[in-house]
Amino acid sequence: MTDPIRLQVNGRSVDVAVDPLTPLRTVLGELLGLRSVRMPCGVGACGACTVLVDGRPVKGCLHPVGLAAGRTILTAEGLPPDDPVAAAFAARNAFQCGFCSPGFVMAVHGLLAEDRAPDDATVRAALTGNLCRCGSYPLILEAVRELAGEGGAGR
């Protein structure tokens, strides 16, 4: 039997008794029921499982839960109802089916925490690991531009 791993998820403390190598996405999605943490690929190629660990975007399907012990984990469910990133996506209709949206929203949060005014090349580079099968990339970029305001360079 493994010792429980204590996680701080969306502002609450939870203990999970799993192997420390279990993917964080498995714990968040399957054990804790957080539906925004998707797992279509399972190999870190699509970004649909992106969450923030201590404010940094990580692919939940690749991140062992043991490395998240004692760290702050934020999923889309933990965002406030008036979250500005989610609101910018909605205002620009930066989604079609919505499947990828939680991963993109969390990746954008991580980007903007590092760089409040990223240029287009920086945004594209930061979001390279997130895929949208509906092709909403131009609208996602518009949403990030809106969030960055006129401070972003290189349009």
Task: Write up this protein.
The chain is of the alpha+beta class and 155 residues long. It has 2 domains: 5-77, Roll (Ubiquitin-like (UB roll)), CATH 3.10.20; 84-150, [2Fe-2S]-binding domain (DNA polymerase, domain 1). It has 6 helices and 5 strands. The protein has a 5-stranded mixed beta sheet with strand order 2-1-5-3-4, with helices on both faces. The longest helix has 14 residues, at 101-114. The radius of gyration is 16 Å and the shape is elongated.
Which helices and strands occur, and which strands form pairs?
Blueprint: E1 5-9, E2 12-16, H1 24-31, E3 50-53, E4 56-59, H2 65-68, E5 72-74, H3 84-91, H4 101-114, H5 120-126, H6 137-148
Parallel strand pairs: 1-5
Antiparallel strand pairs: 1-2, 3-4, 3-5
Helix pairs in contact: 3-6
Which structural traits does this protein have?
alpha+beta, Ubiquitin-like (UB roll), 5-stranded mixed sheet, 34% helix, elongated
Brief synopsis:
It contains 6 helices and 5 strands, in the order ββαββαβαααα. It has helices at 24-31, 65-68, 84-91, 101-114, 120-126, 137-148; strands spanning 5-9, 12-16, 50-53, 56-59, 72-74.
Unreliable spans: 150-155
Number of domains: 2
Name the beta content range: 5-15%
* CATH top-level class of the largest domain: Alpha Beta
CATH architecture of the largest domain: Roll
Largest sheet: 5 strands, mixed
Gyration radius, in Å: 16 Å
Count of β-strands: 5
Strand order of the largest sheet: 2-1-5-3-4
N-end to C-end Cα span: 54 Å
The ordered H/E elements are: EEHEEHEHHHH
The helix/strand class is: alpha+beta
Overall average pLDDT: 93
CATH homologous superfamily placement of the largest domain: Beta-grasp domain
What is the helix tally?
6
Question: Helical residue percent?
Answer: 25-40%
CATH-defined topology of the largest domain: Ubiquitin-like (UB roll)
What spatial form do the alpha-carbon principal axes imply?
A: elongated
